[in-house]
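Dear support,

I submitted the protein below through the web form. The confirmation email said the job was done, but the results page showed an empty box. After a refresh the structure appeared. I'm attaching both so you can tell me whether what I see now is the final result or a partial one.
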Amino acid sequence: MAEEKGETPRGPLTAMGMIAAAVIIALSVAAAFVLGRAYAPAATSDRIASRPTPNVVLAMRDLSRLEAATFHMEKVIELTDEQSRLFGLVQARDQILLVAVGDVVAGVDLSKVGDQDVQVDPPGRSVHVVLPAPEVLSTAIDEAQTHVYGRSTDLLAARKEELEGLARKEAAEQIERGARDGGILDRARASAERTVRALLQSLGFERVVVEWKG
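What the results page shows now:
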């Protein structure tokens, strides 16, 4: 059958349009890829290195007040309150004899350790630590074992009720002094150093150097 006059064939033109559209899309994608590569931030080779020093400090601070040595001691305290009566003609006494038992605890306050007190060498697996000096952390009277052995008040003397409290205070001071004289701080230093070394070795350090302030 003969084609009608005035009618334009559409098949070939439609195929050509589809090809042109595909070419345009491909060029657009390529251009976007090239522009993206041009304006993309350059890759960096920087490495973020961890600083182990704060972790070591926090691990030691977790021990807080490291109680490293304890002394259990006994003291006999005699206190006398001398009183003058009858215009100085008579001397009267109020006297107490106290048997005191107490405990003295010495150690290291690791909360005082700062970042500057710890030097870490990760490649060498070593750490250098400067610890605060050992100190007496507490002195306490054992109330269960402390007792008044004797109390006497002369006829003309006034009984001083605070005398027992003064005797207990004196006992605590003498017990602490006796512990210091007995070397409690040296024992606390040695014990604390062993504990800190064991802690740091458990964190993976093979070489541990411990020094002391003061």
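Response: this is the final, complete result; the empty box was a page-load delay. Residues 52-212 form one domain.
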